[in-house]
Amino acid sequence: MTTPAQPFDLAQALKLPQALDATARCYALIPCAGSGSRAGLDRPKQYEVLAGSRIIDHTLRAFLAVPELVGVAVVVAPDDQAMAAPDPRVHVWRVGGATRAQSVFNGLQSLHATGARESDWVLVHDAARCLITPAQIQSLIRACLVDRVGGLLALPLPDTLKAAVAESGAMRATATVDRADKWLAQTPQMFRLGDLRRALQHAEPGGFAGITDEASAIEAQGGQPLLVRGSAQNFKVTYPEDFALAEALLQLRGQTP
Question: 107 and 75 in contact (C-beta within 8 Å)?
């Protein structure tokens, strides 16, 4: 990826304490190779139009409004011809894999091959979380730049949590689980490129079993990612009913002065 002629001084711009590596750059990586099957669609859901723009375009606009990022990589399926770079800072790589973890790993490999360093930071974000805001992205960057591990946006679990068992074709609650230490993981998730690449490489021989997000890969290697409070609006558009809610919120934002 091409970096600005004069590197962006993150610590100075965010008025941070001295970062662990003041020369580290920040990139965004957006895996975008899903099929849209859970949403009941016959095409990838990131190309559905909400409030006048595709889901992926809403997502990209938020990241392109963050000056701390030197580039944004979008990982799509090898046969995906629907995605084109809308901005010089966006790079589209057709290296998507069969799973999200494989797509992220392939994207990290490409990022490293094009000049990103092991010590650089990568913010991995779900394409379908199209309600993410620049302020939320910056809050994660601010918190993680001075953290030894990295972290993710997340929310404390607000609802009562039940353990369940299948019985005669139905699900029945067997116990109430203590939610005091339970959080709902969101994205972006921000880690050093080298750390995340090695964590996923370690999981690759097993088919990335148990790796449901980037934080889980880091955890499997003994890391304890920082939890940075996110927003309930930063949900992942997944099921058919999510589309109407996301569109309503996007339209509401568009009407706000």
Answer: yes
Q: Is the pTM of this model over 0.70?
A: yes
- What's the pLDDT tens digit per position in 180-235? 999 999 999 999 999 999 999 999 999 999 999 999 999 999 999 999 999 999 99
Q: In whole angstroms, what is the distance from residue 209 CA to residue 126 CA? A: 19
Assigned CATH for 10-255: 3.90.550.10
Give yes or no for a cis peptide into 67 (omega within 30° of 0). Answer: no
DSSP 102: H
Residue 104's alpha-carbon distances to 13, 49, 52, 77, in angstroms, are: 29, 24, 28, 12
- Cα 175 to Cα 161, 169, 172, 179: the distances in Å are 9, 19, 9, 12
| pLDDT tens sequence across 129-153 | 999 999 999 999 999 999 999 999 9
Q: Using alpha carbons only, what angle is made at residue 187 by residues 111 and 236, rounded to the nearest 5 degrees?
A: 120
Q: In sequence order, what are the beta bridge partners of 156?
A: 183
